[in-house]
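To the wet lab folks,

You asked to see what we're planning to order before we commit. Fair enough. Below is the target structure as tokens, and below that is the sequence we designed to fit it. If anything looks off to you, flag it before the synthesis order goes out.
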């Protein structure tokens, strides 16, 4: 009787000597946690899908800044569609998808992490040029160049993540101690390289660029308030500056929220070192994933074009003839 009871606690009762034990959660806590995280996953995927459809469908939104937002929305969509559900399975239940899918999961996590921070860096560069060098912005930041930059960002992210998880891809399950587990460990050297390339360098670049943008934006705002002219050209220039400043403010909020969700994970890793508290790590991972749900809400709060596009999408008016040319700005 004791043997049966013991076997019932295993992920794979038929593998008594090599099966992992099922995670011990109180049923009410497990149900509540899964419902909340599943809801966040669904909302994240749905909202980012609206962003993807909006920017892809309406030609008026095919601008360099919006293409960068589209790329970020793709990474956020993957978080909602795949990463959060797989993270729920990995932490609240037995891993039943096999060792190969476990290695693919960690490779996907690394790729999306790298692509997200890469997109945020590109957004910061875009706003830096728009505010600090507005006269050359149309020639330096073109749609073609931004598309190439986005493709390079995703290619480099995928390549870097493959190098980072190559041992696991070559030998799936090498870090698992039992069946029903999905674990991944890195060497100290790989951890340091990852910390520098995916945290210290990009975060430093983002902070430096936005500090410069902030200084220039404040000086431009003061100049526009103090200098009033009746010349039409000057008025037009001031209107353009206001538009760029508003875009910089919105994307600044996006970057700050991203860093607020991103930094705790790496700061915890730095402080804890080899001592890992899996509940804290799981919470910080989910905090970072939750950022993918916040980004579309920021667009809805600050961008009228996103609200207009969503109305057309939800009411299915985008299926009408030539709606891609509609004026939604």
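Sequence we intend to order:
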């Amino acid at each position: 009787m004791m043997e049966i009871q013991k076997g019932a606690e295993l992920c794979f009762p038929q593998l008594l000597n090599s099966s992992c034990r099922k995670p011990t959660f109180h049923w009410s806590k497990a149900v509540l946690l899964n419902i909340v995280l599943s809801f966040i996953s669904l909302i994240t995927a749905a909202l980012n899908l609206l962003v993807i459809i909006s920017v892809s469908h309406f030609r008026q939104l095919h601008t360099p800044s919006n293409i960068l937002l589209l790329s970020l929305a793709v990474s956020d969509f993957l978080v909602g569609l795949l990463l959060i559900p797989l993270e729920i399975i990995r932490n609240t239940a037995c891993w039943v998808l096999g060792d190969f899918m476990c290695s693919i999961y960690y490779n996907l996590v690394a790729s999306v992490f790298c692509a997200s921070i890469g997109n945020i860096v590109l957004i910061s560069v875009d706003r830096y040029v728009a505010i600090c060098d507005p006269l050359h912005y149309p020639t330096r930041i073109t749609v073609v160049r931004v598309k190439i930059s986005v493709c390079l960002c995703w290619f480099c992210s995928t390549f870097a993540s493959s190098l980072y998880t190559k041992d696991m891809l070559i030998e799936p399950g090498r870090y698992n101690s039992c069946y029903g587990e999905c674990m991944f460990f890195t060497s100290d050297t790989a951890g340091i390289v990852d910390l520098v390339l995916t945290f210290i360098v990009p975060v430093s670049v983002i902070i430096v660029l936005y500090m410069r943008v902030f200084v220039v934006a404040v000086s431009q705002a003061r100049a526009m308030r103090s200098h009033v002219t009746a010349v039409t050209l000057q008025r037009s220039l001031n209107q353009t500056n206001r538009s760029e400043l508003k875009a910089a403010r919105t994307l600044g909020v996006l970057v700050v929220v991203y860093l607020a969700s991103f930094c705790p994970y790496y700061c915890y890793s730095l402080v804890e070192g080899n001592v890992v508290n899996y509940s804290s790590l799981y919470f910080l991972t989910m905090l970072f994933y939750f950022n993918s749900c916040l980004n579309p809400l920021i667009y809805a709060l600050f961008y009228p074009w996103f609200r207009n596009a969503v109305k057309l999408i939800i009411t299915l008016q985008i299926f009408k003839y030539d709606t891609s040319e509609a004026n939604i700005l």
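Structural context that might help your review: The mean pLDDT is 82. The chain has one domain: 27-322.

Thanks,
Computational group
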